[in-house]
Write the structure tokens for this entry.
Amino acid sequence: MKKAYWVGLVNVKKQDEYQKYIDIAGPALLAAGAIILSRGGRIKNLEGREIDRIVIIEFPSMENAEKFYYSNEYKKGLKFLNIEVADRFLNIAEAI
């Protein structure tokens, strides 16, 4: 089974509201066995639009990554995100 990665690009607009999402999503990810590889560290933009935050999270498989996204635990955090809080792109990439 190939590992999979959540790759998220985020521009945060309201840090206080975004923090509510982080406080729920982070522990839920760890409890689900995901490994947070990058989340909120330094970013050096080389091409294209600058991004505030890049998130890379490892899962055992594509199925696990997608299942977690739709889980009740994750939905508790997602309720704090909307277009006023952050611009966000989230994809799942399968490892080679």
